[in-house]
Every structure is written in structure tokens, then in C-alpha cells.
Amino acid sequence: MFNDAKGQNSLIFVLQKEFDEQKRRENRIEVTRGASDNATPNISSLIEHIQKHVEKQSYQDNLIEVFDSPVEQGELDESPWFILNRVEDEKIINKMNSVGKEPSTLLNIYEELITGCNKVDKRLLDNVTSHDVQKYSIKMGDGVSVLTGKELNAISMSKVESELVRPIKIQTY
User: Fold this and answer.
1) What is the pLDDT of residue 12?
2) Which has fewest Cβ within 10 Å: 19, 20, 67, 97?
3) Distance CA 65, CA 34 (A)
4) pTM for the full model?
């Protein structure tokens, strides 16, 4: 959606000013998500395009996807907001939860790789021997690069750098 944010999943959501407190609390959040890999040449034409379609409950073209979140504006507080589900998705999730167990009780759910935030953290240090931490001078906050096999083959590394390369497995669902 934004040319300078390559590889990111950008979105815009709209909160409307409403003086009637009840209507404001019940107002559904309208979400506009940029279609993947379809950056528009300039932001003003994108905003114009969004304005033409944001009032629709559901709309999609090669640039944007517009939908109502199941979250009502009155539910927003200082805690994190999970607004990306569609109303239909939320109905399915609620039905699944009402007849079965929550996924977190059946699956080991955890956050894997966070693109753009790859740094040495406690979890990584817990999986590296203290010998390697000392040998390679690994410190909290050091950068971690994630490379494809093709990228790895295209660069030349020192012996020490190549000793630090580890494969990762990304789960796909």
C-alpha cells in the first residue's frame, strides 16, 4: 500500500466522530487493507480511491480490501486491538469456541519470526550455549539476519560468520 513500506502488511482503519454515545459504542470499525504487492504510485491517489469505497461494508479490488471489523468502537481501550477479522470470520470462530476447545488448549501457539524486529533476545540466548555466546560475543540486541538459500549463496562470509548460520523452519498453515 505504501511504497516505502515494502513487504509490510499496511492497513488503515477509520473511527468516526459520533456525538451519540450509544451509536459511537456500537460503531463497527471500517478496515482498509492494501492488497499485497500492489503499491500505488502516490499516496494521494490511494487516499482518494479509499474514500470512494470506505463506506461499503465489503469491497475489494487490485489495490485495497475494505471490510467491517467485528470489533465495535466501544470495545477499544488501552489494551491491544485485534480488528483484522471480518464479521463472518468472527462468527465462525465463536461457533468453533462454543462447540469445542479453544485452539490454545490443543496447539502450541507462539510467535515465530517477526520481520524487521530480528534481534538477539532471551529466547534466542536460551537456545545457544554459553560457550558460543562467549566465543562469538553474542549480546542482547545484536541483529539477526534472515536469509533465503539463494541470498545465502550469493554472499561471501568469513569462517566465523558461516559458523553462526543456522537453518530455521517457518511453519505454514
Assistant:
1) 65
2) 19
3) 6
4) 0.44
